[in-house]
Amino acid sequence: MSSRRSTITDRADCSTWPSVAWTALPSEQQSIFRAREEAVRRYCQRESLRAIEEVTGVPYNSIRRLYDRCLQTHADGRLQGFRALIPFERVQSYRRTAKITRPGSAGKAGAFSLLLERHPELEALIVMELKAHHVVVRQGPKGLVVGGLSALHKQFRKRCLELGLTECDYPLVQAERGIRSLAAAVKSIATSSFETAARAALSQKRSGGVRPNVEGLPLVAANPYDAVEFDGHRVDVRLRVVFERVAGVEESFEIERVWLLTIIDICSRAVLGYHIVLEPEYSRFDVLKTVERAMVPWKAPTLTIPGLRYAPGAGMPSARLPELGYAAWNWFRFDNARANLAVDTLRLLTEIVGCGAHAGPACRPNERPHIERFFGTLGSVLTHRLPGTTGTAPHDPRRRIAELTASSPAVIRLDELIELTAVAIANYNASAHDSLGGRSPLEMLAYYVREKCIALRWLAEPMRRHLCLLQHEHEGHVRGSIVNGVRPYIHFFGARYTSHILAGRADLIGQAVRLYFDVEDVRALRVFDVSGRELCVVEVQGSWRHTAHTLRMRKEISALVRERKMRITHTEDPVQCYLDYLRKGAGKRRRAASKAEVARRAVENASPSPKAPPGPADKHKPDPGVEKQAAPVTAVGKTSEPVKGKRLIIGSGQVFSR
């Protein structure tokens, strides 16, 4: 009795159940439904069955059965709720249990479903053919139409014979061998979800739909810097670069299309930072560079094109609103590109920036609508209006018009595109948006930051001073030999590194060390032991130390030497030989011209002498640039200046990895 009583008193809350528009029911069913609904509601409030029967007229022995019907699962995944109380409403699909005893088409209800249940191999065959697009479901004027059904039916009959069915068994005994039931099963499996239905219909484009509710991820960014979106876009313009062969003699070459990496704030629609990449594919280093540029205060580039100027009030948020410099966001949303999911990228976002990283589902760009819409706007106001545009697709009329009217295959210089992009993005932040009520993104940020005074997070002070966002950790070993008289050194990507301090430490030979390097200039490394103690700064030896170069350049030079495409002697500078090699092939291959421009910019932007990265920030080490001042001692109650609160010893919340 105790178990029976516990099950009866354990009743659900019916306030959240799916309801029914009972006025749409036939008049003879409305009174029945309303009596059942009132009975179930009173039962959920723990009234007695006899009292419910007296009030509603529903038999007391049927109330519990009606309640159980409401708790069953509907086809949409929710509870049946009050929908189960509609007269003549089925809450469970028909499941056949009787055997087929007579021939003919009559009396076969549920036979095909029973066949698939007993032989899962047949249902797996249908699913496999749908995934392989051998069977296509299209929408015709009278409903769904199955294409390729004859071939599937032939395989289906063959599989039935392999499973032991004979010509006297269902469905082979039927006149049409069950082809109509097979078509109904194909439609049912294909339309089990929208994704499977669109895939079965060979849909090339799918709408975004509703974003899945990820736990901890806000559905709407209520304030600026709650969530940002990141993505990369291939600029739809053919470009050229100019190389100076000798003094006063220039030669231009066409390069590959460049990448534009952008970070945009969801709430204000403001572009926080961007980065232009000249490589065929952007890497994790480019993602980190974009994050850095979104946080560091922006400096407007110098414009050299006549007549090109910024709109009044245009700029980036960190420049127009100084308090947004080094501001950090809470969520970082991106796609499933390999560069985005790299360990260095996730470490930077979670440990240094202190935000959550959310990678959306694959092949669904509508999960990041704001950044995708920005790229469309940038194309309409800039790239698609330039000569040499490639358009949005090969069949775009603008692409053909540009090819017919352009005097050269590429008429836009890379330097010009960089300036035009800077002006276009700065003006975008100052232009009015309909979705913002006629305000610009910068005005929205100023309203939230200066009028509403929302709470923001900023990058920790040690990270601002050292700006080691682009530093990367690499594990290595100290090499050398006491027997052969080889002083200690470190081998790092095909080159030797050493210093006066390391060369005298024989005890470090064979020890594991941690190396921190700047990917933009790998001529110097900062060395730490496995416990995190700094050892020294080492510099590259030999001819590698003459010219600044990136890690990617060194890898490509080593690959060319291994493939015997380039010969370098001990007295030659490998970086200069690499530049000459790329310039010779720039006229034949656009990729060579792009690499030559990347190498040239890396050499020009680097410092003349090797400069070691600062390494991981130490939150316990005081800032050497800040002098310590002694506080004046005054008597209690006789202070000559306002009393200042003591500095808390609680950390800032930033996590630094060694």
From TrEMBL:
InterPro entries: RNaseH-like_sf (IPR012337), RNaseH_sf (IPR036397), Transposase-like_Mu_C (IPR015378), Transposase_Mu_C (IPR009004). It comes from the Bacteria. Residues 592-644 are annotated as: Disordered. Gene3D superfamilies: Ribonuclease H-like superfamily/Ribonuclease H. Residues 617-626 have a biased composition (Basic and acidic residues). Residues 490-536 form the Transposase-like Mu C-terminal domain. This is Mu transposase C-terminal domain-containing protein.
